[in-house]
Amino acid sequence: MDDKRHASKRRQRWFEIRRPIHKRRAWALGVAIWVIFFAIWQLAVATGTVTELLVPPPGKVVATLFDLFWARDLARDVGISVLRIVVSFSGACAIAVPLGILMGSFRTFEAFVNPFVSAWRYLPAPSFIPVLLMWFGTGEGPKLALLFIGVVFFLITLVMDYTKQVRIELIETAMTLGATRRQILRTVTIPAVLPNIVVAMRQILAVSWTYLVIAEIVASTTGIGAMMMRARRFLHTDEIMAGIVVIGVLGLTFDLLFRWLHRGLFPYLDPASH
Prior knowledge:
Radius of gyration: 24 Å
Order of helices and strands: HHHHHHHHHHHH
CATH superfamily: MetI-like
Distance between the termini: 37 Å
Mean pLDDT: 87
Helix content: over 70%
CATH class: Mainly Alpha
Number of domains: 1
Structural class: mainly alpha
Number of strands: 0
């Protein structure tokens, strides 16, 4: 009976609803899932379950990755891709954040703008490629515009929804104390919603990375996507997989940077700090 009780306690320590776990355990579990993934990948190639031409083994992809960086200047393509993401996403944030806050704060403004934003949100960004090429030519314009269109309307909606979640009691208290609408926005709404805005930016940045390859096949000779398209012509699957790995690592890096930014700006929201 005691053994069963102890076993039950051990299971509860591993699987408790929304209970924080030790940082070392979290790291171990995070590493374990990748070890399992690469082991299955290697096993599938070694046993012939998948064709090596189409799915090269992990070791070959890693070797190709080092070759691309040291011998074929992949670092330059990575820098260009990162710059495109940063510029387009910064532009999207500059428009989406203030617009979303206004839509979430004023129902009249939401009623006027939201039908337009909602309609654009359901339009697939790649469908704009032909017209973007006609408008901006074959330079950086269509790539940045595609990355911008792909995220801005989703970000507006998220910021609006988070702004609506600001507690009405805070706003009513400020109104009772005689605050103007501008003061309420500046001293109540924006500080209250800012942590969630950073969360929304982190969520939507992942969408921006998913559009990167599509943007870089638009008459492009530079960037990670362009490198992957060149590799496709010659069936260099290892180079394509290496490009996928690079995009995944870059996306994870930016995600971790946003997490660090969120903890640094709003330490009072981190359970580990209490």
